[in-house]
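Would you mind writing out a protein's amino acid sequence and the numbers that encode its backbone to help me picture the idea?
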Amino acid sequence: MVPGSVQKQMSVDVRAALAGRVGELALAANLTIGVAESLTGGMISSALAAAGRASQWFRGAVVAYSSEVKYEVLDVPAGPVVSSAAASAMARGARRLLGSDVAVAVTGVGGPEPEGGRVPGTVFLAVDGPGDHRVLRLELAGDPGEVCAAAAEAALEMLVAGLEHP
């Protein structure tokens, strides 16, 4: 394997471990999980779908890559789609659409060019659940693939933290 392949496999392994932990926590608390992702293009939802007993706790995902889908499907307010307001609306919209107890959302700029006045690596995450709503801004480094992988891991970590400490 080449070094990039090793790094990618490690990232996949980390996502798998985090997704497994999400499943354990969701099952223990009798909660269902939904996802809204843009930047990561399905990386979070595919990790969750591959986790143990996912059919019992994973409701599904909306991969809203286009701004119009964010506005029309997830009720993101008019304005920048790489923002805390957009991530927040995406999490709430996914929770509503999918009928999940908890939802995680991610939006950001992978690069290599800036978008909407945001530099590559700017990422917003949100988790929405019963009595809990959190939004986090990250500044990640790397090429677009590395930013996407790091954002997916961070979203899963945020989801684990929210399930461990509601």
